[in-house]
Design goal:
By secondary structure, this protein is an alpha+beta fold. Helix content is 35%, strand content 27%. The protein is globular, with a radius of gyration of 12 Å. Helix 1 packs across helix 3.
Length: 98
């Protein structure tokens, strides 16, 4: 089963969003469109916060994610409630049969 946080990052990048990663102390990744850079920053800590920005730089949402010790569908621990994140959540749930 695909991990939810990976699916979320793919969804954001496919929409042209940029992703920043907060590791609890700093922003090691700022407004990136590089999948591997984002994933590596998330995997460097137990829990990371993601900030999403659209192509104009507007903040579009936030998510708390964890790469370790969680079931795949639980790796997105929390997120902003807004249309595009709710859309992602619905699409992800369809892929896992929830």
């Amino acid at each position: 089963m695909k991990q939810a946080y990976i699916d979320l990052i793919n969804h954001a990048l496919a929409q042209g969003f940029k992703v920043s990663v907060w590791d609890g102390e700093a922003w090691p990744v700022k407004q990136s469109i590089k999948f591997r850079e984002i994933i590596d920053a998330i995997k460097s800590v137990e829990v990371a916060e993601l900030r999403f920005r659209d192509t104009e730089g507007n903040k579009c949402g936030w998510a708390e994610v964890g790469a370790y010790g969680l079931d795949p569908e639980e790796t997105v621990i929390d997120h902003t409630v807004n249309p595009w994140l709710e859309n992602w959540n619905e699409l992800y749930n369809q892929t896992i049969g929830a």
